[in-house]
Amino acid sequence: MADQLGRAGQTETRAGGPGNAPLVMLPGLMGTAEVFVPQLRALSGVLPAMVAPLLGGDRIERIADHLLTQLPARFALAGLSMGGIVAMEILRRAPERVSRLCLMSTSPLPDTPTQAAEWEPLIIAARSGRLEDVLRGCLPVDSLAPSPQRLDILNTIYQQGCSLGPELFVAQARALQRRTDQQAALRRFKGPTLILCGAQDRLTPLKRHEFMAALMPNARLCVIEKAGHLPTLEQPDQVTGAMAAWLAEVAPDQDERPDPSRETATTAAGGAQPAAPSLPPLTLTNPLKTS
């Protein structure tokens, strides 16, 4: 994987960037950086990586606009669940800023009228002091694959979500309730794309990810075995490996061969342009795994 990320850095340099493009990761409904901790630990040692919260309003469009005012000029973008929905809206609004895309446990389709109506009792319950019950209903136990750490993962996610408060839940629920179809934005994107899902995801099943991958000209589907809706925590090593391969992919309009004009370029001081630095090996850690 270190070799894969090393190639990713060289690719970005040949494309004119200053090394590795930053990686921006977007969590799901009431999510925090907790869902990406294993990937942050592994990837942040070899490229700039960050997690952006889904703030900014009660429409997906407003959240995307809010994020675009804060994110780098160009970045690799990965979104999980609701984060994937926001990532698609960012792609629709500013495709020139997204160098590559990773969509996990998500869907490009809007809610049906029946699904949209189902948010109303959840919003009422959250406002009446039952946020934890609401979160447990949104992410039930069987949405993750059976494993010894399943309850530990879920309890951590519930606690993190409760710490964000009911008002944020209401805003995010309204945003999901009124989201629009993103199929056209996906069809237009030509950059390297990873569509990733857990084989046992009951919330956004495999067929939905197969559908997304078929829409996109340069998409690769990766199914994570023994994982459900939160593969980043359920099978962190598999997910990080898939993301490392995605980050190392050469974009369709880039040549894998070295560019002689760049290799012989000189600095303003007249010296040779230094080669891209070698990258250290990745360290893969699951903080929720008990010894």
Automatic annotation (TrEMBL):
Residues 1-20, 251-291 are annotated as: Disordered. Residues 36-239 form the AB hydrolase-1 domain. InterPro entries: AB_hydrolase_1, AB_hydrolase_fold, AB_hydrolase_sf. It comes from the Bacteria. Residues 264-291 have a biased composition (Low complexity). PANTHER family: AB HYDROLASE-1 DOMAIN-CONTAINING PROTEIN, MONOACYLGLYCEROL LIPASE. This is Carboxylesterase bioH-like protein. It comes from Phaeobacter piscinae.
